[in-house]
Write a structure and sequence with these properties.
Blueprint: H1 2-11, E1 16-22, H2 26-34, E2 38-46, E3 53-62
Antiparallel strand pairs: 1-3, 2-3
């Protein structure tokens, strides 16, 4: 799915693709790094309808 998104974004002239991943999700973090994404920033997000916050990483891939 991620590879298809990368191809689609590249085909249609996108300059950048970004994704937010929970920091504790080691598998997804590994996939984004393997596909060439770099860490843009570390932040956190709030789970919907709760007061629970999770640490997250925002990855980006530049198309230049």
């Amino acid at each position: 799915m991620i590879c298809t998104s990368i191809k689609y974004a590249s085909m249609f002239g996108c300059l950048k693709l970004a994704a937010e991943v929970a920091k504790e999700n080691t598998a997804s973090n590994a996939v984004f790094r393997k596909l060439g994404f770099h860490v843009e920033k570390e932040t956190r997000f709030k789970k919907t309808r709760t007061e629970i916050y999770y640490a997250s990483v925002i990855y980006s891939l530049d198309f230049k």
